[in-house]
Write a structure and sequence with these properties.
By secondary structure, the chain is an alpha+beta fold. The protein has one domain: Nucleotidyltransferase, domain 5, CATH 3.30.420. The protein has 4 helices and 4 strands. It has a 4-stranded mixed beta sheet with strand order 3-2-1-4. A hairpin with a 4-residue loop joins strand 1 and strand 2. Helix 3 packs parallel to helix 4. The protein starts with a helix and ends in a 5-residue tail after the last helix.
């Protein structure tokens, strides 16, 4: 594990101590890799994933071929917000998993807000 990944994990542990997701306000965890983004809504009270979605899924790949850029993160956020609304989720706690709030993570978060999620 390199120094950059270790720093991210330390940030994630520090942030994670302060946030708890509930049934009415789940924690939205974002995972970023070089080629994909994935997000899941977690109810920490029940230790259960409510639902998850990824840029590697067929539904996303039909609309957008390349998933490792800022534009795809924005489209992914809009699709995730629509799916969350279908599940009855309107308020979330945004957990960026130690990733810096810039680039794909920032665009994903902004498009979630445009999609109607509050955090």
């Amino acid at each position: 594990m390199n120094k950059k990944e270790l720093s991210r994990l330390k940030r994630h542990c520090r942030i994670r101590l302060k946030m708890q997701g509930t049934g009415e306000r789940p924690r939205l965890v974002v995972k970023r890799s070089l080629n994909n983004l994935s997000a899941m809504a977690v109810d920490d009270a029940l230790n259960k994933v409510i639902f998850s979605f990824s840029t590697a899924s067929k539904e996303f790949k039909e609309k957008f071929q390349r998933a490792g850029n800022v534009k795809s993160a924005q489209i992914f956020g809009e699709l995730f917000a629509a799916k969350a609304k279908e599940k009855g989720i309107t308020k979330i706690i945004f957990d960026r998993a130690g990733f810096l709030y810039r680039g794909r993570i920032k665009n994903f978060a902004e498009s979630l807000r445009k999609g109607g999620l509050e955090f």
